[in-house]
Amino acid sequence: MKGGSFERIALIGVGLIGSSIALAARRAGLADCVVGSARTAATVETALRLGIIDEGFSSAAEAARGSDLVVLCAPVGVCGAIVEHINAAGAFREGAILTDVGSVKAAIVADVAPHVPNGVHFVPGHPIAGTEQSGPEAGFAELFDNRWCILTPPANCDDAAVGRLQSFWEGLGSHVELMTPEHHDLVLAITSHVPHLIAFNIVNTAENLERVTDREVIKYSAGGFRDFTRIAASDPTMWRDVFLNNKEAVLEMLGRFSEDLTAMQRAIRFGDGETLYRLFSEARELRRGIVEAGQDTDAPDFGRRGRTMDGDGDE
Ligand code: NAP
After folding, report:
1. Which of 54, 88, 159, 292 has the largest CB neighbor count within 10 A?
2. Ligand 1 pocket test target in 101, 150, 185 with most atoms within 8 Å of CB
């Protein structure tokens, strides 16, 4: 068996992320068998029909039973209850690795860890890759290529389990970094959560304008607005759970954001072109850094042509 491979992988949730893991694991030959469960029978049926999973279950416990890797790919807010259910059914295999892909880490650790039995290694994770689409049809094998995956193992975690999961993610195409859940939540608040909040907000502001019609907003959207609408199309359940579960870090980053926005507002009010030019130049430099790091291209049609260019829908 190659490093990072498993006999039976159970995906609890087979939406965008779960189905992409299944497809990328098959591409790399990392699983003898991939099984899955979802909230609804319709999703399980679709995943089976598309050949994403070999077997489908209505119960997360039955999917997890006998699996040496269990990956929670459901919204952040339900992960604790899912693991409680699997454990109550006695379905965890001795020595199995339990991980997740949730966009928030400290809250998931608090919800999940109390239900993880001895002999099961819980290694939380978060792939920084995604799109604004949902469901099994949205998954694709290349989603994690050249993207980062953050693992947040607890201090007493089994090193071999962490190493095995790291090899698994590398096999899916990712680079892996380890950090604490708290640090993860702070970093993601500014790189993903606040940008999504701004996108949701600006789209709603445009919608609420009385003197500019919806038709005009859509017609002239190429002026910049459409780039916000792409991430504002992300799944409402997922994002509700992210904000409910990363409250402190998001509020901290929003506070800083508001201060910086006020500085720009002031510069506009007082005709301070020098400050505006400096702030915009600094922002442009950061964008160059992202392109140089291979996390995006500088193609002028960014975000409109290929799905592989998308960031962490969250992500
Ligand atoms: P998605 O496409 O909406 O899929 C969610 C899946 O979870 C669906 O299969 C859904 O089943 C299932 N589910 C919901 N409640 C469940 C429950 N109680 N028990 C079992 N399954 C349940 O969402 P996604 O984008 O893959 O996101 C999944 C996770 O990945 C989230 O925690 C999110 O934070 C994280 N993440 C997302 C992105 C992104 O860009 N989207 C990136 C990185 C990480 P039904 O279809 O039957 O409802």
Report:
1. 54
2. 101
18 to 44, 51, 200: CA distances (angstroms): 11, 13, 25
The CB of 44 under 6 Å from ligand 1? The reply is no
Looking at domain 183-292, its CATH architecture is: Orthogonal Bundle (1.10)
Instruction: Give the residue extent of every domain in the chain.
Output: 6-180, 183-292
CB atoms within 10 A of CB 84: 15
As given in the structure block, the two tokens for residue 57 are 């279950």
CATH architecture, domain 6-180: 3-Layer(aba) Sandwich (3.40)
Pocket of ligand 1, candidates 12, 70, 103: which has the most ligand atoms within 8 Å of its Cβ, to mutate?
103
DSSP state of 76: G
Contact predicate 46/139, CB 8 Å:
no
Q: How far does the centroid of ligand 1 lie from the alpha carbon of residue 2, in Å?
A: 28
pLDDT in tens, the chain (315 residues): 667 899 999 999 999 999 999 999 999 999 999 999 999 999 999 999 999 999 999 999 999 999 999 999 999 999 999 999 999 999 999 999 999 999 999 999 999 999 999 999 999 999 999 998 999 999 999 999 999 999 999 999 999 999 999 999 999 999 999 999 999 999 999 999 999 999 999 999 988 887 777 788 888 888 888 989 999 999 999 999 999 999 999 999 999 999 999 999 999 999 999 999 999 999 999 989 988 888 888 876 544 554 443 444 556
pTM: 0.92
